[in-house]
Amino acid sequence: MRIVVLAGGIGGARFLRGLKQAAPDADVTVIGNTGDDIHLFGLKVCPDLDTVMYTLGGGIDEERGWGRTDETFQVKGELAAYGVGPEWFGLGDRDFATHIVRTQMLGAGYPLSAVTEALCARWNPGVRLLPMSDDRVETHVAIEVDGERQAVHFQEYWVRMRASVDAQAVVPVGAEQAKPAPGVLEAIAAADVILFPPSNPVVSIGTILAVPGIREAIAEAGVPVVGLSPIVGDAPVRGMADKVLAAIGVEATASAVALHYGSGLLDGWLVDTVDAAAVPGIESAGIRSRAVPLMMTDVAATAEMAREALALAEEVRA
Amino acid sequence: MRIVVLAGGIGGARFLRGLKQAAPDADVTVIGNTGDDIHLFGLKVCPDLDTVMYTLGGGIDEERGWGRTDETFQVKGELAAYGVGPEWFGLGDRDFATHIVRTQMLGAGYPLSAVTEALCARWNPGVRLLPMSDDRVETHVAIEVDGERQAVHFQEYWVRMRASVDAQAVVPVGAEQAKPAPGVLEAIAAADVILFPPSNPVVSIGTILAVPGIREAIAEAGVPVVGLSPIVGDAPVRGMADKVLAAIGVEATASAVALHYGSGLLDGWLVDTVDAAAVPGIESAGIRSRAVPLMMTDVAATAEMAREALALAEEVRA
């Protein structure tokens, strides 16, 4: 079975770990969000790709959910001693090595997709990890500070400001000109099932869908497209998805997110059992829905979620 | 008193520490060798400038003589795990931060001299540290491997091969086209004394003198130029200077090095007490010479060497 998964960072990575346990023989291609990418200290950092790579490769810090296990922070401390920031982005020493290799390869002319493949040769994530695009796309968030509207990089909004002010708009700068990375459209066209993990619908999956050609390819693939709600009981399971959903005028509810994707894209949608009351409304919008436990408390629980998603896909297909 | 010092790495840096103790009120400008610079992992590494900066700024690893104190090597280990080398060059985590800042500033368009000044703002070395040039100069060593002549970067010859094969030639690639960094010629012209510490006469001081204009400025400065022999008892005090001296046809003796610089450049030359017999020969070549202890066993001994050098300069002047 060929499965394509659109993934952001922590939520997507943890779901993928469950999916691999649920379907160990499946051929999984991950289309990773690169809108969160940022240049720090002259180095190219791809937080979402790395979170998927480290999580599936056994290198993730389980506690934090991002960055490397057994991490140290000597380089960051020294950069701060030089007065070179930002200090709000937590790059550890082990993590730095990844960005150094990536930046060196990009500087030598390799596209991000080739660099990602090279990095994965070490981590053996057990999936094919593709960036959504080799072109630069950078998610900016419009905010109002002292009555003046300004745009900040998504990481600045998310990590430095912790989404403490309202997002007025979320703009994937460069997306309109971006092309899907080599292999992305081919993987979608060859897929048996396409899954949206409980990743952020705006800045993760939304950004991937903003690359021209990807949304169309998914809609036209003619295979079940099933998602899992990142909203449980009217609040994001983790992160601050409600802040960026508000920016695009979508309520932070399991059903509102499903309707935002829409029946033109989505065939099935899993909501958590606490949101079972939303199922009829979602189904009446033409999206098959089931209420199942959606808390990724451990790999076993996450694998069960993946099984439910694949089962819903088969229901849709039949 | 304005003192200009031409410096390589460890020997130059340690001498400077003694000089600062011997002449705490002197205005010292250091012209640092950049021929040893190397690009590693996409980062610009300036070993000699950093050794001076760390040594005078209190950040040096005293045991090794290079690199940072309390150093860790997480980044290097991770790079090796990615299969990215070279592994033979010992970059520690703290040291990496320096190269990251430097590379980022160079990428932003700042010349190396401005970058060095910015880095020194943290370290407060108590001297003005100038790279010999903002232009790229790279010392290559010609060697013979299996009967075939090839050129390797100086660091590869020195660090990886540990000078285990004969050097056929030493070539400061790019030196002919290089211009002295801003401030270099001005500092020489304004100097009261010019010192050559016991640095490598070929790949450190020789490379600095290979930048067009510097040798001429020193010869024409009209102030005492005094050097300290890096050769004691017919062997280099540290390093493998004899290997590269052989490549340019100079014997590894205190007097041969003095004559190599020549009386057109050098006014005074200190040799170690074990080489006292060489003094008459050096003096008959027109270079004033004294035999004094030249082992930099500690800062006090090194300060005494600096005092002897300054005393010889005053003798020359008188």
TrEMBL record, chains A, B:
Cofactor(s) of this protein: Mg(2+)
User: What catalytic activity does the UniProt entry give for this protein?
Assistant: enolpyruvoyl-2-diphospho-5'-guanosine + 7,8-didemethyl-8-hydroxy-5-deazariboflavin = dehydro coenzyme F420-0 + GMP + H(+)
UniProt keyword Metal-binding present:
no
**Which amino acids does the record list as binding 7,8-didemethyl-8-hydroxy-5-deazariboflavin?**
D50
Q: Which gene encodes it?
A: fbiA
Q: Name one GO molecular function term.
A: magnesium ion binding
Tell me the enzyme class: transferase
The pathway noted for it is:
Cofactor biosynthesis; coenzyme F420 biosynthesis
Recorded protein name is Phosphoenolpyruvate transferase
The entry assigns this protein to a family as follows:
Belongs to the CofD family.
Matches recorded under Pfam families: CofD
The protein's UniProt keywords, in alphabetical order, are: Magnesium, Transferase
Question: What InterPro entries does its record include?
Answer: CofD, CofD-like_dom_sf, FbiA/CofD
